[in-house]
């Protein structure tokens, strides 16, 4: 009975619990219906409000990002930075980096990068100290004292002193060394006074002497014990050169099996011990090619940063970031008339030839802007005087000059005298620019009855023609530089067979010119030099030994901008490297 009563109580308790659970479920369901699901209908009424707030949040976030980028660009600029590998293509072959012997384009390029001179030209083509800190000349203008910079070192870590400078010039003066610089250093006494001081004592004053102190200095501690007669062939020259310039020797790679396809790559690395600080470029490679065609092909394969020595920019390299730098040379392109014999020995014929040429039409064909050349000195150069320019273009006056010389026009329109036609051969280097200029000259002379036959030669053939003076006239460019000393081109001693270079291509001889040229170069005072050169300029104008045309340019092709290079006047091809230690080719965003 008691057990039955317990079971009934347990069942009633379970039923109560079930009723409680059912009541709780009903209550919960009603609450959910009222408080959650019942609100879904209201959500549709506010979704636009919520979407607007979300959109506003996204816009604010985007504005913040854009503002941050704009502020960053405001305080940052794309700037050139140090580093990078520079590869310059040059036509020619590499044989000798030693500055005592380097003569072709490739050798001089490598030599200029490795070796430093006492002086160099800067980016504005002004002479400035390289290894030299200062210089002075005595009252007689014959003794120059040069002071070296302190703490100069060679690329092998040894100290560079005045003893190295004296050794360099004594070696040049030694005929056994066979340096092509020898002729310029005769009768000059070079003395190392102390570790940083060198004196140069000249027999006579020479106004342009300081400009000759730009050749590279070589290390005495590496070359002193080598006989001078053996210096041309030592390994130092082409596999182990040590200089004090901005770049040091790294490696050399030779490829090709024949002279026609031979290529040489000379790799140089930045020299941290250079007196002006390590160059900005990490490395510089001089890539020598046997011909321009191979060099251009390599450039188009993006293997080169730059190309040097082209007479004009090939169409295949234009565009695509290529920049054509036009560096005006302090040089003169002229037609040199051989005055010592033949039909061109008559001054009236030469004057007639000059007056027959419209130089402006020739300059227009060049494809670049430059300055005309109208006397023996360049416009803007010390001593230049517009009162002594050559005769202007004047066809009628030209005909009178030819008539004065006895030449008359026949029915074919040619000038004849004693049954002979007025004709001569005009020699020129076979390159695109000279080909165009020579053709235009011949055309204009033909218009007045003169037959000028153009003879185009390869560079090697033309060099032989110049050296032998076997021509009637030559179209050629001469380097003048910033100093007006043009003695080697116009003094009568400079076409003598015993002359070293025979650079008086016109074989011009004038007592008045000789005296003025000698006087002008032996004075240091600029004002006095101007006065001394006037008789030379007057004689040159009257005698007409040459037809001045224009200042040529040096083309330098680069892939993109080379910061620090710039387009500026240079004295010679190698002066393109005047500021090479400051060149940069890489860029980055830099905070200001």
Structure notes:
The strands form 6 sheets. This protein has a 7-stranded mixed sheet. A 5-stranded mixed sheet has the order 19-18-20-14-21. It is of the alpha+beta class and 592 residues long. It folds into 3 domains: 80-115 and 245-329 and 554-592, Periplasmic binding protein-like II (D-Maltodextrin-Binding Protein, domain 2, 3-Layer(aba) Sandwich), CATH 3.40.190.10; 117-236, Dipeptide-binding Protein, Domain 1 (Dipeptide-binding Protein, domain 1, Alpha-Beta Complex); 330-550, Dipeptide-binding Protein, domain 3 (Roll). The protein is globular. It has helices at 2-35, 40-75, 105-114, 162-173, 220-223, 292-300, 347-355, 359-365, 395-404, 432-447, 459-468, 487-490, 511-521, 526-543, and strands spanning 76-81, 85-91, 119-121, 127-129, 132-137, 143-148, 188-194, 197-202, 247-255, 263-270, 283-289, 306-308, 322-328, 331-337, 408-409, 415-417, 420-421, 423-429, 451-457, 473-479, 546-550, 553-559, 586-591. The chain is 32% helix and 22% strand.
Termini gap: 103 Å
List the strand order in the largest sheet: 9-10-11-2-12-22-13
Examine the secondary-structure arrangement and name the CATH architecture of the largest domain: Roll
Percent helix: 25-40%
Shape: globular
Parts with pLDDT < 50 across at least 5 consecutive residues:
none
The proportion of strand residues reads 15-25%
Can you tell me the CATH topology of the largest domain? Dipeptide-binding Protein, domain 3
The CATH first-level class of the largest domain comes to Alpha Beta
Please identify the structural class as seen in this structure: alpha+beta
């Amino acid at each position: 009975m008691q057990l039955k009563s317990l079971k009934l109580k347990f069942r009633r308790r379970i039923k109560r619990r079930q009723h409680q659970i059912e009541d709780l479920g009903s209550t919960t369901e009603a609450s959910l219906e009222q408080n959650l699901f019942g609100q879904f209908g209201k959500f549709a009424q506010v979704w636009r409000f919520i979407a607007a707030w979300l959109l506003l949040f996204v816009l604010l976030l985007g504005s913040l990002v854009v503002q941050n980028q704009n502020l960053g660009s405001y305080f940052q600029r794309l700037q050139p930075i140090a580093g990078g590998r520079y590869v310059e293509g040059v036509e020619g072959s590499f044989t000798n980096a030693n500055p005592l012997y380097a003569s072709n384009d490739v050798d001089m390029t490598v030599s200029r990068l490795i070796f430093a001179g006492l002086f160099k030209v800067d980016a504005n083509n002004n002479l400035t100290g390289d290894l030299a800190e200062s210089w002075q000349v005595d009252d007689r203008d014959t003794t120059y004292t040069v002071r070296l910079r302190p703490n100069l070192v060679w690329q092998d870590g040894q100290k560079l002193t005045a003893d190295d400078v004296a050794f360099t010039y004594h070696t040049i003066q030694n005929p056994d060394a066979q340096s092509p610089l020898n002729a310029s250093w005769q009768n000059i006494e070079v003395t190392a006074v102390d570790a940083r001081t060198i004196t140069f004592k000249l027999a006579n004053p020479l106004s342009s002497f300081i400009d000759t102190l730009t050749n590279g200095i070589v290390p005495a501690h590496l070359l002193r014990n080598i006989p001078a007669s053996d210096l041309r062939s030592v390994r130092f020259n082409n596999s182990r050169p040590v200089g004090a310039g901005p770049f040091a020797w790294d490696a050399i790679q030779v490829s090709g099996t024949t002279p026609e396809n031979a290529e040489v790559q000379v790799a140089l690395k930045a020299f941290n011990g250079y007196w002006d600080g390590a160059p900005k470029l990490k490395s510089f490679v001089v890539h020598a090619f046997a011909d321009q065609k191979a060099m251009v092909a390599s450039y188009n394969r993006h293997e080169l940063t730059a190309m040097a020595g082209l007479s004009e920019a090939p169409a295949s390299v234009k565009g695509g970031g290529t920049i054509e730098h036009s560096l005006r040379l302090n040089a003169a392109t002229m037609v040199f008339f051989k005055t010592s014999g033949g039909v061109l020995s008559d001054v009236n014929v030469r004057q007639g030839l000059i007056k027959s040429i419209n130089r402006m039409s020739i300059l227009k064909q060049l494809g670049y802007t430059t300055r005309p050349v109208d006397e023996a000195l360049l416009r803007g150069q010390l001593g230049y005087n517009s009162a002594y320019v050559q005769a202007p273009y004047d066809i009628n006056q030209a005909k009178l000059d030819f008539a004065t010389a006895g030449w008359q026009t026949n029915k074919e329109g040619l000038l004849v005298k004693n049954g002979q036609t007025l004709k001569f051969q005009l020699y020129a280097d076979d390159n695109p620019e000279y080909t165009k200029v020579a053709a235009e000259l011949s055309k204009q002379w033909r218009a007045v009855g003169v037959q000028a036959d153009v003879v185009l030669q390869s560079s090697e053939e033309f060099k032989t023609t110049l050296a032998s003076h076997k021509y009637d006239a030559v179209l050629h460019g001469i380097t003048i530089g910033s100093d007006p000393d043009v003695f080697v081109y116009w003094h009568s001693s400079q076409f003598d067979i015993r002359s070293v270079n025979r650079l008086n291509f016109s074989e011009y001889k004038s007592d008045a010119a000789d005296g003025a040229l000698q006087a002008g170069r032996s004075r240091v005072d600029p004002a006095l030099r101007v006065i001394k050169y006037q008789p030379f300029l007057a004689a040159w104008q009257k005698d007409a030994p040459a037809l001045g045309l224009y200042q040529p340019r040096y083309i330098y092709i680069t892939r993109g901008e080379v910061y620090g290079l710039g387009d500026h006047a240079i004295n010679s091809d190698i002066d393109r490297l005047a500021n090479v230690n400051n060149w940069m080719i890489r860029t980055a965003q830099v905070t200001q």
